[in-house]
Amino acid sequence: MRLTTFSDYALRVLTYAGTAGERLITIEETAEAYNISRAHLMKVVNILTKTGYLKGVRGRSGGITLAKRPEDINLAAVVRATEPDFALVECFATGNQCIITGCCRLPNVLNEALNAFIAVLDRYTLADLMLTQRDFRAPHIRSGKRRGPDFIDASRPAAGPSSPSKRTRSAAPSKS
Amino acid sequence: MRLTTFSDYALRVLTYAGTAGERLITIEETAEAYNISRAHLMKVVNILTKTGYLKGVRGRSGGITLAKRPEDINLAAVVRATEPDFALVECFATGNQCIITGCCRLPNVLNEALNAFIAVLDRYTLADLMLTQRDFRAPHIRSGKRRGPDFIDASRPAAGPSSPSKRTRSAAPSKS
Fold this sequence. Notes:
The structure is a homodimer.
Chain A lengths: L4 H16 L6 H8 L3 H13 L3 E4 L5 E4 L8 H8 L23 H16 L42 H4 L9
Antiparallel strand pairs in A: 1-2
Helix pairs in contact in A: 1-3, 1-4, 2-3
C-alpha cells in the first residue's frame, strides 16, 4: 500500500514553501533541496496552484508561496486532492468487473479502514510539519534508517510481487 | 492509494475457499468464478499456502481448502502477508534518499494513519466475509456501481497522475 510519488512530492513542496515563510521559493530550488525531478515537481506545483494551496508571484524576483496559512492546510484535504484515487481493491474503481460486487462484505471493511486512515490525516495541518530552513541544508539520512511502520520488517522478503511492474493494480491482469 | 492486485486476489481466493467450506476448490474454478487470471492466482495460492492460510490436498479429487477456520484468519494479518510493503512515502522504504529524513514530521503522522487503517482490519476475520455459494453464480455488478469511499467522487478528473506507469512509486524519478 503506497501513496503516489505525486502526493509525496506535494507534501514535500508544501513543507518547503511553508518553512520558507514569506520568502518566495522556486521549483528549481525545491527540486535541488530534495534532489528530486524538476519536471515531476512542475506538475505537482501546477495542481497545488490550481487547487488553491500555492500561488505564483510573477516578475523578476517572482516565485511561489503558500496561498493559505499552514494551519489552514489540512493534510487529509491535500492527499484527497493529489491521490488519483483510493481504489484499494477493484470494486472501488470504475470499470469494476468483480462478480461478487453487491454481496461482498469486504468493501465495508476497507471503507472503514480507509476512513480511519483519512480521519488521522484530518487531525493535522501543514503547520504540524513545519521545519527550519536549516533542516534542508544538512542531510539527516542515516544509513539504513527507515521511518516506516513497526509492524513491517523491511529485511523480510516480500510475500507479494516484488517487481515494480507487478505492483500496480491499474488494470487487472487478463484472464489466461 | 491502493492495495496490490495480489492482496485483492488473496482476499478473493480466501473468501471463495471459506465459502466452499469442506469442499476442495481448485485454482481453475476460482479463476473462472471471478473471471481473473489463473497464472496470477497460482502465485497468490502459493504464497497463501506457504503462509499457512491455505492447504493443498493431493490426489485425483485433490484441491485446496482453508488451513484454518475462517474466524482464525485475521484480515490485517492477511494483508500484512500479501502486501510487499506499506511504503506510503519514500522514507518508509529502503533506499530512501529524502534529505529531511530524521527531522521531518510527516512519517509520524503517516504511521499513525497507517496504524489506524491496520487496526480496523485487525478487528475482522475471514468469517466476516463469508458468502453463500449462490453469490458466486449470479453476477451482482450493477452498471456504474462503485463501492469506494464516499469522500471520493469517481467522476471527478483525477488531480494526480493518471497514467498507470506514473502511478507506481517504486523508484523516484531521476533528477532532471
